[in-house]
Amino acid sequence: MAMAARQIVLAARPKGKPQLTDFRLEETAIPTPAAEQVLLEVQYLSLDPYMRGRMDDRKSYAKPLQVGDVMVGETVAKVTASKHPRYAEGDLVLAHTGWRTHALSEGAGLSKVDPALAPVSTRLGVLGMPGFTAYGGMRVIGKPKPGETVVVAAASGPVGSLVGQLAKIAGARAVGIAGGAEKCAFVKNGLGFDAAINHRGADFPAQLAAACPNGIDVYFENVGGAIWQAVLPLLNKFARVPVSGLIAQYNGPPPGDGTDRLPATMREILSRSLTVRGFINYDFAAEHYADFLREVGAGIADGSIRYREDIVEGLEKAPEAFIGMLDGRNFGKVIVRVGI
Amino acid sequence: MAMAARQIVLAARPKGKPQLTDFRLEETAIPTPAAEQVLLEVQYLSLDPYMRGRMDDRKSYAKPLQVGDVMVGETVAKVTASKHPRYAEGDLVLAHTGWRTHALSEGAGLSKVDPALAPVSTRLGVLGMPGFTAYGGMRVIGKPKPGETVVVAAASGPVGSLVGQLAKIAGARAVGIAGGAEKCAFVKNGLGFDAAINHRGADFPAQLAAACPNGIDVYFENVGGAIWQAVLPLLNKFARVPVSGLIAQYNGPPPGDGTDRLPATMREILSRSLTVRGFINYDFAAEHYADFLREVGAGIADGSIRYREDIVEGLEKAPEAFIGMLDGRNFGKVIVRVGI
Question: How large is the ipTM?
Answer without folding.
Answer: 0.89
